[in-house]
Amino acid sequence: MPAWQAEPIETVRIDQWLWSVRMTRTRADAAAVCRSGHVTVNGKTAKPSTAVRAGDRVEARIHQRERILEVVGVIAKRVGAALAVDYYVDHSPPPPERPEPVFERDRGAGRPTKRDRRQLDKLRGRRR
Question: Which of 36, 93, 111, 121 is 20 to 30 Å from 27 by CA-CA measure?
């Protein structure tokens, strides 16, 4: 191995790995998710400093979605989305379907009419 090339790493912090594979936008967000108890590694609640290695199973609740990931490779630096998918296998359930909008206005139609405002208030539970 050339002197300039770093040795391959075997473990990395869970917050750093979640950020590196683009599950969270920032490393601070990843650490906050871990501190709040929404991340488990191999069935145990993970602190931000918990070590992750290839073969581990990571379960996380991120952005109101349950993510179940199997660590394939350990990575310490953030990479592009196309490369990030090579470091995990996603076993997550599909995201829930979004409900059809009940009230929809044409974009650029101007200000809502009094009738439109009443319908919106009724949907939001602000009856007068």
Answer: 93
Domain membership of residue 65 as a residue range: 12-90
| pLDDT tens sequence for the chain (128 residues) | 455 445 678 999 999 999 999 999 999 999 999 999 999 999 999 999 999 999 999 999 998 899 999 999 999 899 999 999 999 999 999 988 877 767 777 888 888 889 888 888 888 887 66
State how many domains the chain has: 1
Total-model pTM:
0.73
CATH code for the domain in which residue 56 is found: 3.10.290.10
